[in-house]
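quick one, 125 residues, struct below
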Amino acid sequence: MKLLTHNLLSSHVRGLRPGGGFPLRIEASEVRVRPVPFNGAFVARLVPRLRWAALREAAETVGHPGELPPEPPPQYEADEEFLRRLHHVLLEVEVQEGTLLCPDSGRRFPIAGGVPNLLLGHGDA
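---
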């Protein structure tokens, strides 16, 4: 699971408060870094859509602390060093095995082979 994917996921367990179930906490038992070709324009277009605090927390949790600044720089579109660091965290760092923990319900969702499974049973949805 790439950290870009993680930044988009939330729990949909029944009974959560509005906006609840985010961010899912990563409990990683295996993390890999896989090179991906850099596309600065693509990464720059993602910045406004990212939940920045959750991304920084996820990066720290999986062993990549300090790679991202507290906030994107004002002119991030022209800052190639920043875009490369963000590219690395979003697209090259992958959680292969572990779990995602819902901060509101405590429910754990498995990550196996890099794929998070957020399927719920009939009583949970």
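The radius of gyration is 15 Å.
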